[in-house]
Amino acid sequence: MSSERAKRGFFYGWVIVMAAWLAMFVGSAASTSFAIFGPELEDEFGWTRGALSLGFTLNVILASIFGLVAGVLVDRIGPKRTVIIGAVIGSLGIALLSQVNQIWHFYIFYGVIASIGLALSYFLPTVATVRRWFMRRAALALAIALTGSGLGIVLLLPAVNLMIDAFGWRTAYLALGLITLGGLLTAGMLLKKDPESAGTYPDGIEPEPAEVAARADFSARTEQWSVGETLRTRSWWFLIGAHFYEIALIGILAHLVFWAEDLDLSRDTAVSILSLYVLAAVFGRLFSGYISDWYMARFKISRKPVLYVCTIGVGLGCFLAIGVSSATSLLLVCLLIGFCYGTGLSVFPTYVGDLFGVMNVPTLFGVLGLVVGGLFASIGPVLYGFIHDATESYDVAFLIVGILCLISAVSLFLIKVPVKKKALPSS
Length: 427
Fold this sequence. Notes:
Helix content is 78%, strand content 1%. By secondary structure, the protein is mostly helical. It has a single domain (11-200, 210-414), classed as Up-down Bundle (Growth Hormone, Chain: A). The chain starts with a strand and ends in a 13-residue tail after the last helix.
């Protein structure tokens, strides 16, 4: 008899992973479409990069706020309804961008409407749902789902860029809105809240008694913490500090095409480098997902060594980005940063579950996204944009964010596994 008592039949958790993948595929392309449409708007309307970056920053801030709302909605009405509601709102915002004529139109359609809808429909609801369906293979399952995010940028954005060349940016925006609607609605219809609601177990496997006993030494990591209890731990605040590196990454994603064009590269070459940057992140996610689960199972200790690759590697890439002057050096720096970024993107969500349990993961993701996305990630685009407007270079921005990445590594080092205090027995 197998040591793992698996229920016969196909495990629906892999359908959840594929649904999350699809949502990531279209949602990430819509969310990061600024990278290819921003230069078009700059050329047509003469808006500065700083002004355009404010729209991207508004998008990131509201996405983080409504990420918290998404976490609450997933807990209360389930991921299916949450994603479907967000799909309608988000795709409408993207389609309305085809009618932009004033900068405030861009702020409203992209910074507000699209941001709210996409926050409700593609990242947090799907990541949190995948995390509930998997225990042993959590990092791998998340890594597979998150490759959709990378491949959406790698495959869908270049296709949209071709539509821009062929039909103009307005038609391309409308087409992207329709693609987003179809993909997110399909994904939402496939989602189920958790394995218990489907009459199965995480990973589709009923654990052996011996396995349950073996987890005893690691019980603190699977102990369930309420949101209030979590926010009162030092580890939570160090976890937030460990995300300073997000300032670097969102800024690079928003300005990579601008940066490449400053080096006299063509728009098509710039989009190709953007695609390779994200493709490197896809490989980083898959690699770290497998290594993280293997490392955790083999040594029963923290996933932190994998996360050091993310924070320190991104920081090194930012320092190397200073003074980049050729397509080759730009590509190499982007590959390094992209791969290291990918290692963190699949492991950090799993690490939250390791520290505080999986029951409140959707809400905890929302709170984390509110701080990280609302504050850290929103700083990146405007930091890069206004520094470039002032200095006609991104070098000072890279120096600043490189230092912040090192602060992330220090914060990560300071995270300890929280242990609940036991009430003393009455005498």
